[in-house]
């Protein structure tokens, strides 16, 4: 792992077949171009490393796993380019789907907040474990005039069912760890002081098994699922339509004006930011 020192947003160490990847991109671990590029490079590196059998993702920030995608970067995307339909999954889809399809086992250890693209990154992993009383997941994009465009509309219904996925996506409310566990959004919700030891023990246990058996067992389980690529293409085209709209631009501006993408505002009352994106800064009556 000589390339580990090249990462600026990630910390990487490998021990006994387990690659431990820590997201370290302050102040909020925003899913911006820098973090996305490094996740893409990391995926290629670890997929090709025969010494790695399991990958565990966590965060250096106890409050934020990945806050959400960078709204300022989304606002800067070219409207004409967004209007052109796509026929295959986009770059972010390909990056996160590599962690789903690679012949390694991928695990998310969630101690803080994972909204929007952060939730979608976790959904692409093989397993997710969350800290009770601390971990929060959510998809707040509809409140911003968008829809989850990083796989959320496709992966979430497969995990928790259509009705609950619609509640998450259309309700734009945070889902705490205990409810996430009941719905199947995460594998287990554990007391915060038990989360790390449990995930580490599971990762080391899995890594002790034959790598070919791990890879083929994962491939066999994936074969039971319906084809994902077509749904991802539909999601991307619809997301691009919304992202290029005047409504989305206005709501993004309002979100930032209310303090979005600042640590204080996102920790204090994220729901106020969600509701405040409306015309009058209030939820409709």
TrEMBL record:
<keyword id="KW-0456">Lyase</keyword>
<dbReference type="GO" id="GO:0006635">
    <property type="term" value="P:fatty acid beta-oxidation"/>
</dbReference>
<dbReference type="Pfam" id="PF00378">
    <property type="entry name" value="ECH_1"/>
</dbReference>
<dbReference type="GO" id="GO:0004300">
    <property type="term" value="F:enoyl-CoA hydratase activity"/>
</dbReference>
<dbReference type="InterPro" id="IPR001753">
    <property type="entry name" value="Enoyl-CoA_hydra/iso"/>
</dbReference>
<protein>
    <submittedName>
        <fullName>Enoyl-CoA hydratase paaG</fullName>
        <ecNumber>4.2.1.17</ecNumber>
    </submittedName>
</protein>
<dbReference type="InterPro" id="IPR029045">
    <property type="entry name" value="ClpP/crotonase-like_dom_sf"/>
</dbReference>
